[in-house]
Design goal:
Elements (H helix, E strand, L loop, with lengths): L3 E6 L2 H19 L5 E3 L3 E3 L2 E8 L1 H10 L10 H15 L5 E6 L2
Antiparallel strand pairs: 1-4, 1-5, 2-4, 3-4
Length: 103
């Protein structure tokens, strides 16, 4: 199963392009094609939520390459969540990220 994360934001139109560009950059850094998928958004209580799924190939590269060095968390899923969140932040995004499934 591919890692699945839920992203939340109050400014979807602005953030979705930043998230896409950041994930495209991550694909290039990992030398992976089709490394992520973005699911259809839904709105609730003024927030927009959407899921991103990272391919197993990209997740394996991130884990084994040392890219997550310094990412906080006791389990690999927590570390990956923190890594992806920090990566998006360094690319200009201010979304919130939550791990749904890390298999």
């Amino acid at each position: 199963m591919n890692p699945l994360f839920q992203i939340s934001t109050r400014s979807y139109e602005k953030e979705i392009s930043i998230v896409r560009k950041a994930l495209e950059s991550l694909e290039i850094e990992c030398n992976v094609k089709n490394g992520y998928g973005i699911e259809k958004p839904f709105t609730k209580f003024g927030w927009t939520f959407f899921n991103i799924q990272i391919s197993k190939e990209m997740a394996d590269h991130i884990e084994k390459s040392g890219m997550m060095q310094g990412a906080l968390g006791y389990k690999i899923g927590e570390q990956m969540t923190n890594f992806i969140g920090h990566y998006l932040e360094t690319k200009g995004s201010s979304v919130r990220i939550k791990k749904i499934d890390y298999g």
